[in-house]
Amino acid sequence: MIEFKVVNFLQRCTYKQLKQIHAFIVTTSIGQVPEIRLKFLRRSTEYGEMGYANLIFNQMGGLLCTETTLWNAMVRGYAYNGPCENCLSLFDEMTARGIKPNNFTYPYVINACSQMGSFRIGRKVHGLVIKSGFGWAFSVGNSLFDFYVKKAESLDMGLVKIGSFDDARRIFDGMLEKTVELWNKMIGKYAITGDVTNARELFDEMPKRDVVSWNTMISTYAKAGDVENASDLFQRSPQKNVVTWTTMLGAYAAVGDVETARKLFEKMPNRNVVSWNCMMSIYTRAGEYQHALDLFSHMQSEDVQPDSFTFVAALTACSNLSNLESGKRVHSLIRDWPKMGVILGTVLVEMYANCGDIDKALTTFTKIGHKDVFSYNVMIKSLAIHGRAEEAINIFHLMQKRGLKPNDHTYSCALFACSHGGLVEKGRDIFKAIEKDLAVGPKPEHYCSMIDLLCRNGRLEEAELLIEDMSSQPDIAIWGALLGGCRERGNLELAESIIRKAVELESREAGMHVLLSNIHASIGQWSNAVRAREVMEDKGIWKIRGSSSVIR
């Protein structure tokens, strides 16, 4: 039959062919067949825009149409293609004209509310669902579940906590039909909030589990640092994929058990790039940078294709080892790195700077396409460390000209540059900018940098006044910066006063006592210098021995 052929062809026709079918329908009586009318209108909404679909709907009666299925097709189309406001207004028009929504209408309307963040309207639609009795339908319940999940995540601005998903759980509990995927989603939301108890209770209640269920629950324990329960589930899991093994690696990493993590890594029947990245990251977080670099070489020998996360881990290891040659080798393996994102570019900058090649770091920085605040922070700090304070401040100002707003760390880096470059006036200007920036405001670390700047440049009295103006209690770092100024000026009386205040803070910072001892020694008070060291020993405070990253 011709009707069957048209319905069949509608499922795979192009936009141009749809218009040809439209002409055929208009010139024949086939357009009166309800199934063809519906399939044709529905197909017209599946090309990304609603102008043509709206034309067809109007030809079929438009707002005067009484067929719920045709209204549903339009509601669905606007929910998928937008604007979502049209989806809601069409739904309002539908109910105002006495056309009853059904279990095919509500999911699209609720999804539109989720996309728009219209949670007040969404709750009203939920009320209509309850009144109409369509809450039993899986599609309706599933859309309500997603709606309340989105509501929780939006209202908490991503900082979800235990209890955030209570509304979603009530919808979940009220659903007659629950797929394995839905159970997994609910457990996953508990995992995000760290609600291990509810996640495990739900996991134990599951009538049927798949590998995702086991992985999600293992991951929940891993994030909570509960290796014992994570390991128990890992052993009991009837099927394990590469995600299961990698998740268990993360569990050992969370508690710092690098040795067991490596043993598990070696036992993995299959490893993908994520598994290798995970193990490399475990090493870098534990400070075992050479092991991370060795693993990168091992990964290459097994012809595993690295991704941007692999390179970040490898370059981080090179940076901390001050291994410029290895860093250059890793860099040479990255094809078209500027397209791989700002994070990788920033790590490259940091690697070259930490390894002593500040010119290459600066060249690399200029090639980063879309720089963020973090990349500017790294460049400012790196230039300052290498004694190029003026350039660091120029980068700071360039960042602001590009429309990026400094954060706490940006200001700290800029003040650090001023301190090490003797740029007192520029430091004052930056500190005033911090005071005016209500989103940041001066933090202890900013005071510390500013006091260090003043003391380094012989402005001890100004530094004292700045401390007096602080709204919070000065911490040990601030007193330490002022004590450094005392050493420059040989102000023994103030130095001893600072030490007394440090003692009141019950600080076990060895540097403070060593600095006081050195101040005594610099003016020939050797007995007092020895006494300052003895006080350290009496209090059980020991100076940690330094080490070189060059001579090992």
Q: State the helical fraction.
A: over 70%
Return the structural class: mainly alpha
The averaged pLDDT comes out at 88
Q: Mind summarizing the main beta sheet? A: none
Shape: elongated
Low-confidence stretches: 546-552
- The number of helical segments is 32
What can you see in these coordinates?
The chain has 552 residues and is an all-alpha fold. Helices cover 71% and strands 0% of the residues. Helix 9 (138-155) packs antiparallel against helix 10. The longest helix has 18 residues, at 138-155.
Which keywords apply here?
552 residues, mainly alpha, 32 helices, elongated, disordered C terminus
Give the helices and strands, then pairings:
Blueprint: H1 2-10, H2 15-26, H3 34-44, H4 51-59, H5 68-81, H6 84-96, H7 106-116, H8 119-132, H9 138-155, H10 166-174, H11 180-193, H12 196-205, H13 211-224, H14 227-236, H15 242-254, H16 258-267, H17 273-285, H18 289-301, H19 308-321, H20 324-333, H21 342-354, H22 358-367, H23 373-385, H24 389-401, H25 408-421, H26 424-436, H27 444-456, H28 460-468, H29 476-489, H30 492-504, H31 510-522, H32 526-538
Helix pairs in contact: 1-3, 3-5, 5-6, 5-7, 6-7, 7-8, 7-9, 8-9, 9-10, 11-12, 11-13, 12-13, 13-14, 13-15, 14-15, 15-16, 15-17, 16-17, 17-18, 17-19, 18-19, 19-20, 19-21, 21-22, 21-23, 22-23, 23-24, 23-25, 24-25, 25-26, 25-27, 26-27, 27-28, 27-29, 28-29, 29-30, 29-31, 30-31, 31-32
